[in-house]
Amino acid sequence: MHISTSSRRKVGLAALVGIMAAAAVPLALVAGVTPARAANLASQADTQVAIFMVPLTLLVLVLLFEAARFVRRGALPAQSADRPARPLRWSRDRRGG
Hints:
Elements: H1 13-31, H2 35-42, H3 45-73, H4 89-94
Transmembrane segments: 48-65
Keywords: Membrane, Transmembrane, Transmembrane helix
Region (Disordered): 77-97
């Protein structure tokens, strides 16, 4: 059995999302959200726009954060060396040779 050298446990993103989803149900029940009320909210245009725009906005913010992180870090990682160009077989035949 492998014993970890780190004393703290790492919580994955999936576990965090699962915990948040599990906590959302009791909070919704305490707030008085019933299935009929939720269906009424889901049929409104403002709610539909919010359901579309919130994840899209979060995605754009994450992309901006990652771009800023690359810029602050400085130079990009070293690129792999290009392969030497070799002449294509058909190029000799086209020249008429």
